[in-house]
Amino acid sequence: MSTTELPASHAELMDGVYRWQRHIYDLTRKYYLLGRDKLISGLDVPSGGTVLELGCGTGRNIILAARAYPDARFFGLDISAEMLETAGAAVAREGLSDRVMLARGDATDFNAKALFGQGSFDRVFVSYSLSMIPGWEKTVSAALAALAPMGSLHVVDFGQQEGLPGWFRTLLRGWLKKFHVTPRESLRDVLESEAERTGATFRFRTLYHGYSWLAVIKLGI
């Protein structure tokens, strides 16, 4: 997918938000993007497998996953050219360019074969991106369509803070709004519905009293 085919308004918004923040993103986000490492440890990538991250950002997650699964190949998609610049430099710095391929695209509508030369993937994961993507439900559908038989989709994102005090939820929502982030109230329902539609199994966990939600949709079981 070429840059001209991307939804310009959202791509420009993300570039604007992260033009400077990308330089401190990982340092600051590690304190409140909770559950990312649990997602990575649960990928259980098969030997020689392929993994796609939608909304790869600075490359933090894809690099950790590539280290954890050294015989797998990784592919990262993001709509922000600014983030991809940082991710590409990080991947190269870690000596992973031979196993990690990055491309600019829209997570709600992408052609994996055109972008990566890879039509399907054993694992697809989305970490704290659905809460930033307009029309995020389409990302879930697109991710499932990109899975190979017996593949699985792994998602971690903000929950509804259902087990935390109301004041905390209010403060968190106000902070996230500054970065165009909206926790998706219907996330569990959408994921479960998509699992039913595709005949897949669905696993769901609440983490840290509902601060984060972690879900897995697995095909073919």
Automatic annotation (TrEMBL):
Keywords: Methyltransferase, Transferase, Ubiquinone
Keyword Transferase: yes
GO annotation, biological process: methylation
Statement: the UniProt record of this protein carries the keyword Secreted: no
Domain Methyltransferase: 51-151
InterPro entries cross-referenced by the UniProt entry: Methyltransf_25, SAM-dependent_MTases_sf
Pfam families: Methyltransf_25
UniProt GO MF annotations: methyltransferase activity
Protein's name according to its UniProt entry: Methylase involved in ubiquinone/menaquinone biosynthesis
Species the sequence originates in: Mesorhizobium australicum (strain HAMBI 3006 / LMG 24608 / WSM2073)
